[in-house]
Amino acid sequence: MEAVLFAITAVLGVAGGIGVIAAREPVHSALGLLLALLSLAVDYLLLDAQFIAVLQVIVYAGAIVVLFVFIIMLLRATGEAPRDRSIVSPGVAGVLGTVLAAALLVAAVTARSPMVPVDPAYGTVQHVGRALFRAYALPFEAASIALVVGMIGAVALGKRAQIVVAAPSRTGTAASAQQPAARSVAAGTAGEPRS
Amino acid sequence: MSVAPPLYLALSAVLFTLGTVGVLVRRSALIVFMSVELMLNAVNLTLVTFARVHGGVDGQVLVFFVLVVAAAEVVIGLAIIVNIFRARDTVDVDDVDLMRG
User: Fold this and answer.
1) What are the helix (H) ranges across A47-172?
2) pTM
3) CA neighbor of A29 nearest in space, from A14, A37, A19
4) Tell me, what DSSP letter sits at residue B94?
5) Which residues contact A143 (CB under 8 A, 6 or more apart)?
6) What angle, 0 to 180 degrees and rounded to 10, lies between the N-to-C axes of helices A125-133 and A137-158?
């Protein structure tokens, strides 16, 4: 039963991962990411990590993917235009990826450690929370500071005044050569609030 | 019947590789970001697997912190991407390759 469930989630997870990197539309990539994250949540349940599985669904699938979709909608991002200039060609990336996957798979398969039996309370909120607030109390507080810094940073970056200062008078040569009309329109409206 | 740990690690390896390839080949900053999230999740799966193998809770606590940092990172990163888009009208990483200008 568990093996069947794992097989299903593995297939769905890999399919989602392929969807992330292969989809032409960013929204489809976000949906692929959602599929992969939910499959991993099921895997966490199979590994007796209920708390982490719930966090995965709430934080990753709930908050982070929604944020991605929101930004995609905000930027009206569409598929990337075909371009001859690229840092790494897909062929080279495929070879590098194969080498990396082979190395990681060899390391994974040679890890010969059987699972120890655990009691039913393993991985519950109570179990993880106790470790979190006792042994890891200081890192926990540091994590809250990281979240506050993230919040302040997002507010500071999202402020309108900063954008006008950051708007460059001279844009990149390659981009301006390709789309001169769009560039001038964007430069003309950069100072005004856009809806 | 439980699943052997190497299978979880193998799934994690495949997902991490997919994320790496995504970072290498895609030029949209949003997709690159999603690929990074995929890599983070692959590492999380490894951590949870080894926590289960050893019966300890430390790996799960580490996953919790990875989640927190990933949330903060996504917020900041997407704000930066929005700023770049407003200034340059593009999220293509190849178009944003100058330190200044």
Assistant:
1) 50-55, 65-75, 90-109, 125-133, 137-158, 160-166
2) 0.82
3) A19
4) G
5) B64, B65, B68, B69
6) 90
Contact criterion met (CB below 8 Å) for B16 and B24: no
Q: B14-65 pLDDT, tens per residue? A: 999 999 999 988 888 899 999 999 999 999 999 999 999 988 899 999 999 9
Would you tell me how many other CB atoms lie within 10 Å of the CB of residue A189? 10
Please answer whether residues A50 and A63 qualify as being in contact, where contact means their C-beta atoms are separated by less than 8 angstroms: no
Buried b (16+ CB within 10 A) or exposed e, B71-80: bbbbbbbbbe
Residue A64 corresponds to which amino acid?
I
Helix (H) or strand (E) segment spanning residue A116: none
A77 lies within 8 A of chain B by CB? yes
Distance CA A137, CA A134 (A): 5
Nearest CB to A71 within list B48, B76, B82? B82
Its ipTM equals 0.92
The overall average pLDDT reported for chain A is 80
Tokens 């990337």 belong to which residue?
Answer: A80
Query: pLDDT tens across A65-105, in order?
Result: 999 999 998 887 665 555 545 566 778 888 888 888 888 88
Scan residues 83-112 of A and list those with Cβ closer than 8 Å to B: 83, 85-90, 92-94, 96-97, 100-101, 104-105, 107-109, 111-112
Which residue's structure tokens are 């001859």?
Answer: A84
Instruction: Give the integer Cα–Cα distance in Å for A57 and A62.
Output: 6
- Which residue, A26, A74, A52, A23, is CA-closest to A128? A52
